[in-house]
Amino acid sequence: MADDLHARYMAAAAAWRAHREACTTCQRGTPCRIGAPLAERFARLQDAYLNRRRAT
After folding, report:
1. How far apart are the C-alpha atoms of 8 and 43, rounded to whole Å?
2. Distances from the Cα of 13 to the Cαs of 5, 16, 44, in angstroms?
3. Distances (CA, A) of 54 to 33, 37, 47, 49, 51
4. Under DSSP, is residue 23 helix (H, G, I), strand (E, B) or coil?
5. pLDDT in tens, 8-33
6. Which residues contact 19 (CB under 8 A, 6 or more apart)?
7. What is the pTM of this model?
8. C-alpha span between 45 and 35 (Å, rounded)
9. Are 36 and 9 a contacting pair, CB within 8 Å?
């Protein structure tokens, strides 16, 4: 589970980073309609990954 979570977290981080680098709207600090779900997924997975030990 942890390895899968880490892989999903890293994939979400890469997708958000790639989008943000190409999107001038997201670069200004407010995610666009495409970037918002990417940022939210990254944040959710990051929280889950960082809190994984607290849950056990």
Report:
1. 12
2. 12, 5, 11
3. 33, 26, 11, 10, 5
4. coil
5. 999 999 999 999 999 999 999 899 99
6. 26, 34, 35, 38
7. 0.84
8. 15
9. no
